[in-house]
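<purpose> Linking amino acid order to shape
<body> The protein record starts here
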Amino acid sequence: MGRTTERLREAALTTGALLGSACLALLVLGTVLDATLVVFKTGSMAPTMPTGALAVVRQVDAADVVVGDVVTVTREGKLPITHRVVETSADPAVPGGAVLVLRGDANDSLDPAPYEVTRVGRVVWSSPHLGSWLEGAQRPLVLGVATLLVAGLAVVVSWPQREAVEVRA
């Protein structure tokens, strides 16, 4: 195997190992921090978080939420909603609970009803366009190509190498 081929092989192996390690580190970090990713499907939080934005959401006690936080609230039988807190008060019926009034940044009115919650997801970081990229990366064609590339990398790095034969005169 030539020197250039060997260098390419090592670079591919190192890149694969780094990407795999990064994925595992993010998985562990998300589990330890009780964090998830949210992709915005509507423009209700624009311009801060427009359609296609990606947010990291960490689960917190509702009592720790303050006015101005952006939170994700799960709703019985409906999709979760992520809006800004405009009013918060303790829920007298539930120890540690809170009643949150929410509104999307792009909305003219408050959400129809307050949310009675004990835990919510608080947005700790967001990026306006990464969600669209992440969703694009989950398409079957992209996943198929990525699978073929990883399989090809596995074949290249595990292919038996010829030993150099020493010729004596």
In short: The chain has three helices and seven strands. The domain at 36-135 is CATH 2.10.109.10 (Umud Fragment, subunit A). The longest helix spans residues 3-32. The beta strands are 35-39, 54-61, 70-75, 78-90, 98-103, 115-117, 119-127.
